[in-house]
Amino acid sequence: MDDKPLIVRTKAGLLPSLKFDKVIESLPRVVVDMGAVAHLVNGADLMRPGIKSIQSDFGKKQLVVILDEKYGKPIALGFTDVDSAEMRVMNKGKVIENIHYVGDELWKSFAKSS
To answer: Closest Cα to residue 51, out of 84, 25, 79?
Structure first.
């Protein structure tokens, strides 16, 4: 719509693209430190030490948007491995499976189409 991809098909199913602002803004949010950004935009899953803040309550296996702490920009979408309450008390371990991120093949195809 208006040259922006809204829904993408991934191995995980149909998901909003990172460029679908209205949906992205409605998702639960997790903010990461700048050290985690480089790993996430290379496809890594999110580990608990990289989280600066958990800005929403959510359940396990829920879709969340991951934002960088410096600019507050969406850099990835992922499914949670634990709920927000458990994530807040954890100190280590994988907490979010990265499924769509800035720079992935879907992102690159959006850049070509716009």
So the answer is: 84
Report how far residue 113's alpha carbon sits from residue 94's, in angstroms, rounded to the nearest whole number: 34
In this structure, the strands spanning 7-10 and 46-47 are unpaired
Average pLDDT across the chain, whole number: 89
Which CATH fold would you assign to the domain 7-113?
A: 2.30.130
Contact 18, 105 (CB under 8 A): no
Answer whether 46's CB lies under 8 Å from 94's CB.
Answer: yes
Q: Over the stretch 31-81, which tens digit does the pLDDT of each residue have?
A: 999 999 999 999 999 999 999 999 999 999 999 999 999 999 999 999 999
Residue located via tokens 């991934």: 10
pTM: 0.89
Contact 28, 56 (CB under 8 A): yes
Biggest CA-to-CA distance, the chain: 42
- The domain segmentation of the chain, as residue ranges, is 7-113
CA distance linking residue 27 with residue 38, whole number of Å? 22
